[in-house]
Amino acid sequence: MTATQDQSTAQMSARRQVNAPLSAVFALEPNRVIAWMPGQYGPDGEIGAAGWTWRYDLAPTAGPSADGAAADGTAADGTAADGAAAATDVTLTYDWSAVPEPLRERFSLPPFGQEFLEQSLESLAQAVEGRHD
Fold first, then answer.
1. Residue 53 to residue 38: CA distance in whole angstroms
2. N or C terminus of the chain: which is more exposed, having fewer CB within 10 Å?
3. What whole-number distance in Å separates Cα of residue 45 and Cα of residue 39?
4. Where are the domains of the chain?
């Protein structure tokens, strides 16, 4: 992903239904924010989205100073003075408030509980840290 309006497909599964949705990115600030709206191609070939969104907001654990370095020595690019990766706080937002009522009933929204969201954050941490546990 390099800009808003980028699209990607990914194999995803939810509630035993497997499909390859198309995700349209609507917010992207490298190393800070990525937000996307899942959708998929309809029978007419048009991309449709149901209205729910996912968003990760990333923040260094210490705020940057005027020179771009954090109070703990972290550079503006998120690396520590020794070049190692610094810690990051991540906020995950799953918003389904724009989903029309008939779809809310059809999909029993929200379909994901707290445990699923925590697992998503753990999967992100594993990917960033190169772990495979």
1. 7
2. C
3. 12
4. 7-129
